[in-house]
Amino acid sequence: MSTTIAHLTDVHLGPIEGFGLRYWNLKRGLGYLNWVRKRRYDHQRAVLDRIVADMEAQRPDHVAVTGDLANLGLPQEHINALAWLQALGTPERVTVVPGNHDTYSRIGRDPGARRWAAYMCSNAAGMAYLAPGADAGAVPFVRVIGEVAVVGVDSAIETPPFLAWGRIGKRQLADLAQVLELLRHAGLFRLVLVHHPPLRGQADATRALRDAAALEAVLERGGVELVIHGHNHRNMLAWLPGSVAGPEAGDAKPGLAAASGHTAVVGAPSASLAREHGHEALARYNLFRIERNGAGEPASWRTELIGRGLAEPGGPVVELDRRILTFAAACP
What CA–CA distance (Å, rounded) separates 154 from 160? Predict the structure, then answer.
């Protein structure tokens, strides 16, 4: 039996609403200027709606959204994003982790992205794999979907202007290591969701995960099968164990191809990008069709990765990429 997970990321929902004087600061002012000059033309709701319609036609079992639903982290943006999530599906069908734009700049006691808490918590089956004493809203959180354990990791932190780095933190890293070990013993496919690229060298210092080396070590020791992320607005594929030479390394190439290893790390472009901009790819989403590869112990897995999106600005949503990912069994 296979389980199909769809991956959307960096939707950057517009328009920006509710930007009152009380929310102005240097970072938001610069971000708003960037939105007015460029991003509102790059990220178009009509494109995102077409991507979502195509995704729904593929009938995935679950939808994963890896952050940056907002632009300036405003309360009204979080409220609008919640309405979008509710239209996308119920919390049982949709999982979210926040991105740096969702935690853009602190606003007193405003709950921010915690408005989406129902989409960012463990389900009943996942609670069994949490650290002792953790509640359903703790991170990392676990959702068990068929034979797939979706593990949500929060890398989003508030940063100064011109910076967009992330951090997991020692406590979350320690809990993640324990969660992955428990899931390995349960024989489940472990799918980790995080906004920032998790490996060293996958983003420049101003945008990278500050503790990427520590996260990479946890993932490698745990032998996790698949990590999906956003943030770079690019189509990316890397494998662990191994190294990444720089930001260009690991870019997925189109066409049917096979790859294997212990941990695949797959980044997706923005699901709303309507026009080409620098190194950023046009709007796309990924489908992961995951199934057990035989009945051996420890488990090995086969996943078909299908990328669908725009091949050209204004064009239809088409298949862009198809490849087989064969996951070697992790060492016991």
Answer: 18
